Amino acid sequence: MRDEIEDIEIELLLDALYRRYHYDFRNYARASIKRRLRQAREQMGLPNFSAMQERLLHDPAMLSALLGYLTVQVSEMFRDPQYFRTIREKVVPHLRTYPSLRIWIAGCSNGEELYSFAILFREEGLEERTIFYATDINPDALTAASNGIYSLDRIKTFTENHQRAGGKSSLSDYYSTAYGGAAFDKSLCSRVVFSDHSLVTDAVFAEMHLISCRNVLIYFDRPLQDRAIGLFRDSLTRNGFLGLGAKESLRFSDHARAFADFDRDEKIYQRREA
Q1: Strand order across the beta sheet in which 181-184 lies
Q2: Beta bridge partner(s), residue 271
Q3: If we measure between CA atoms, which residue out of 184, 245, 223 comes closest to residue 28?
Q4: Structure pTM?
Q5: What CA–CA distance (Å, rounded) separates 247 from 218?
Q6: % of the chain surpassing 70 pLDDT
Q7: Contact 136, 51 (CB under 8 A)
Q8: Beta bridge partners of 268
């Protein structure tokens, strides 16, 4: 009975979040959402999810706090280095054939993946012809991404990843130590558009040559995964590329036939011409 009541409370909470603020988590994988909401409830000292809903509806500050739990902000620069090495060695040669490029980092979190791509494209001489679109549903994450400041204890991992990803320079060329952390060069964001965009509710906003959306779809249920993949399909130019996370796949998607395997191991796909 207790679990049944909790499920009803969570359903009402997510509905309130959508109706009040237009953030739609109703079709996220329920087990993951429940786990994160329980963590939020415990750390906020609330007796139940009904109390959380009341706070959400009447306390504007509650939205930002709750989004911090519901949106996953765990990443690192050049995460899964072989993915970025494959982008560098196999995808970049195709991208060189275009006079201008549009790259979409969907679910950019705090910006680690964005800066990875910006550095990679600078090293490959493509930065000046590229516009990067960095999107997320969490405004606090977008602010952190635009600031580009990371704790110094993470730099060793970032540096190792960069080298394993085929880095052609030293990562230290791109940041300076400041504010108790490593502040990445603002010029890396000179061709970046930061934007609030939801894969759940928003539409296509530009034609892309490469979309990287890694470790986001694993938090969606099947219908929502299909919605997002359909959005990527409609956003990509002919022969454009889609990169997913290591545990994600197009295999069971209704849109799978719109893509060809480009590098199966690294979950990089190419939009078919027809």
Answers
A1: 149-151, 181-184, 175-178
A2: 259
A3: 223
A4: 0.87
A5: 7
A6: 98
A7: no
A8: 243, 263
Tell me the C-alpha to C-alpha distance, in Å, between residue 135 and each of 112, 113, 241.
13, 11, 17
Residue identified by tokens 């502040």 is 183
Q: Please, which contacts does 71-75 make with residues 24 or more away whose CB atoms are closer than 8 Å?
A: 71/109, 71/136, 71/137, 71/138, 71/141, 72/109, 72/215, 72/216, 72/219, 73/109, 73/110, 73/138, 73/141, 74/109, 75/109, 75/110, 75/112, 75/113, 75/215
Retrieve residue 21's tokens.
Answer: 């603020």
Residue type, 49: F
Q: What is the largest CA-CA distance in the chain?
A: 61
Instruction: Give me the residues paired with residue 259 across strands.
Output: 271
Q: Over the stretch 145-194, which tens digit does the pLDDT of each residue have? A: 999 999 999 999 999 999 999 999 999 999 999 778 999 999 999 999 99
Rounded CA separation 160/267 (Å): 22
pLDDT tens, residue by residue, 180-190: 899 999 999 99
Rounded to whole angstroms, how far apart are CA atoms 115 and 224? 28
The phi and psi torsions of 100 (rounded to 5 degrees) equal: -145, 155
Cα gap 27→138, rounded to integer Å: 17
Contact 118, 127 (CB under 8 A): yes
Neighbours of 18 (CB within 10 A): 15
- For residue 131, CA distances in Å to 84, 118, 137, 165 come to 18, 10, 20, 22
Residue carrying structure tokens 């099947």: 222
Task: Name the least confident of 119-123, 127-131, 206-210, 251-255.
Answer: 251-255
Give me 93's structure tokens: 């040669």
